[in-house]
Amino acid sequence: MTGKPRLRADAQRNREAILDAARELVVGRGPAVGMDEIAAAAGVAVGTLYRHFPTKKDLVEAIVAELAAVVGESLDSALSRVASGASSATDEIIALLRSVVIDMRQERVLRFAVTGLADDSLRELRRRGRNAVEQLVTAAHRDGALYQDVTVDDVILLLATSPADAVPETEQRRWLALARRALSPTAERA
After folding, report:
1. Global pTM?
2. What is the CATH architecture of 56-183?
3. 54: helix, coil or strand?
4. Which of 30, 34, 58 is nearest to 46 (CA)?
5. Measured distance CA(52)–CA(116) in Å, rounded
């Protein structure tokens, strides 16, 4: 059997508590938050934190790796729905935009907060995301459901410049409706 050995149940709970506390503190206060503060928020001793994560970089990389796994599973599901005919590529592109704009606020803040600390994991997240968007754009072009001049870079630009968290949700939803109209000749015009 390959991979990491399974942790004891209490060690796994501690690891999860550390990751949860670190994620919340890094999002709320930035990556400069102290390891002792993270340990206290997780309800573990500082030594326990360091046994799981010898450096802050290790801790932040683990958080981003978890985020990458969740995003990757979501992208894989979207591609599977398109391949099976359960959903259209354009609907999945819009769902991705919605996810980034409305559903993943904390994760988006985390990505920006950890730039420089988790570059390898962020690079992999970007690579995987771009690959999925390329497949969705290709499928949407093939279906005639996306303007032919819309590129992968255009969709990524929309993702990168989506409304900030401070924008009211009603305006974020309006942005999504406008984005759909801008991308697709078959978009509902309501």
Report:
1. 0.75
2. Orthogonal Bundle (1.10)
3. coil
4. 34
5. 21
Please write the tens of the pLDDT for every residue from 69-88. Answer: 888 888 999 999 999 999 99
CA dist., res. 187 & res. 21, Å (int): 42
Per-residue tokens: 110: 């985390």
The CATH number of the domain covering residues in 7-54: 1.10.10
> In the chain, what are the domain boundaries?
7-54, 56-183
pLDDT digits (tens, 9 = 90+) for 124-176: 778 888 999 999 999 999 999 999 999 999 998 888 888 877 889 899 899 99
Task: Give the DSSP per-residue string, 59-85.
Answer: HHHHHHHHHHHHHHHHHHHHHHHHHHT
* Separation of alpha carbons 96 and 108, rounded Å: 13
